[in-house]
Specification:
Elements lengths: L3 H16 L7 H8 L3 H13 L3 E4 L5 E4 L8 H9 L26 H19 L2 H6 L6
Antiparallel strand pairs: 1-2
């Protein structure tokens, strides 16, 4: 599961992508429209700014805007920035690998093999889905 912080970050970024390239939005408007606590959104946007995903402007026409085009920002990039590695097991993480303490042999671990397929499929979807894609996507029924 993704964290609430990551979900808020994605909602804020999609909202910024929706308003258009070069346009900015005030934190208070994003917070209100996306039902995100304003103080929490401020922290999230600051983190996204440090990562070079959004920029802030001061003044009457100020606010936050995307620093990259919506087609250049993937869900995977944002999730890794906010939540860290995309892996259900520590032994499947690319950047935070840890051997599972209760595993005798990763090569024969049936659980690892199944979740490795899940992880690869998840990463593929998240790394290929951009903010632009999310604006045009149709709902999926589960």
């Amino acid at each position: 599961m993704i964290s609430q912080k990551a979900k808020y970050a994605l909602r804020a970024l999609v909202a910024l992508a929706r308003i258009g390239e070069g346009q900015s939005a005030m934190i208070s408007d994003i917070a209100r429209d996306q039902a995100i606590p304003k103080k929490f959104l401020e922290q999230i946007l600051l983190e996204l700014k440090r990562a070079g995903i959004v920029m802030s402007r001061r003044g009457r026409l100020g606010g936050y805007a995307l620093l990259k085009a919506p087609e250049e920002i993937t869900f995977g990039e944002v999730l890794r920035l906010i939540d860290g590695p995309i892996a259900p097991l520590p032994c499947l993480s690319k950047i935070a690998y840890q051997r599972c303490k209760d595993c005798a042999d990763e090569a024969t671990c049936e659980i690892r093999h199944v979740f490795a397929r899940v992880t690869l499929a998840t990463r593929e979807v998240l790394d290929q889905t951009t903010l632009r894609d999310s604006l045009a996507s149709t709902p999926v029924t589960l």
